[in-house]
Design goal:
Elements: E1 4-12, H1 16-23, H2 29-32, E2 36-41, E3 45-52, E4 55-67, E5 71-77, E6 82-92, E7 95-105, H3 109-138
Antiparallel strand pairs: 1-7, 2-3, 3-4, 4-5, 5-6, 6-7
Length: 141
């Protein structure tokens, strides 16, 4: 089945090294990703639980590319979330441009694909909100 794509970008008034360090400090994800707790598992593994226990989703991932302070790519390997994702951080006048992109295989087969046009605007808005929270977190006081 064809994957779906979602992405968002934001300007962060901080240098790429600082932004990348916060984005990849997995336990700090709860500070900017809504209802998400993340942790490193082994050398290349990640786990992110999104929700309020017991209602949530465990997203397991493998880091497939690590290029600080520019890029991290993951493969989502969980039962519910599968596909690829990336955080990209590039220098931009006055700080950094941060891009969060996901290419996901939706669960629930044809039903998931049929629901995506309704869910996509919500998903994109949620990603933008999280990135704005990151920008506030990393911005100099």
């Amino acid at each position: 089945m064809k994957p779906v794509y979602a992405a968002a970008a934001v300007h962060v008034p901080a240098p790429p090294e600082q932004v990348f360090a916060v984005m990849t400090d997995w336990p700090r994800h709860q500070e900017w990703m809504l209802l998400t707790h993340a942790r490193r598992v082994g050398e290349d593994g990640l786990e992110a639980y999104t929700g309020v226990w017991p209602f949530g989703i465990l997203d397991t991932m493998t880091i497939t590319h690590w290029e600080p302070p520019v890029l991290v790519r993951v493969t989502h390997t969980g039962r519910f979330v599968r596909g690829r994702g990336a955080f990209s951080v590039r220098p931009q006048r006055g700080g950094s441009r941060v891009i969060w992109a996901e290419e996901l295989d939706l669960p629930f087969g044809a039903l998931g694909r049929a629901a995506w046009p309704l869910a996509q605007p919500f998903a994109a808005a949620l990603v933008r909100l999280c990135l704005r929270r990151l920008a506030r977190l990393v911005a100099p006081a």
